[in-house]
Design goal:
single chain; about 130 residues; alpha+beta; Arc Repressor Mutant, subunit A; Dna Ligase, domain 1; 2 domains; 3-stranded antiparallel beta sheet; 3-stranded mixed beta sheet; 6 strands; globular
Amino acid sequence: MNTILDSLRKKGFRNTFIRKAILEILSESKEPLTYEDFKKKIKANKSTVYRELSFLGAQGIIKELHFNGGAARYEMTLRDHHHHIVCVECNTIDHVEIKEDLKREEERISKNKKFKILQHTLDFYGLCAQCQ
């Protein structure tokens, strides 16, 4: 997290208390977080938190995700590329890694469709062990 803050400072941006708090909360989280998750841990008004989330997104530090039409969630972009499993009952979200087969499929699509893929998302929806 300090590397991120140093990078922002070198670009001329201030490292505010809210910005540091958001980055710390996200770096410790194992799942993407909603505004409500931040609200429980940070004492700041809604517009300040959303402004910081927007700023960090514009800097490529975090990304905004939407699952099943629900509230926006946020996670760090610096983690290894991964996908998510989402429980449609309790809304628990977990990370899933898919390695070689997906990479080959992406290369096949790119070649056959003459399409340069810049990024992709893949989420799985179902029932977690507790909700089954």
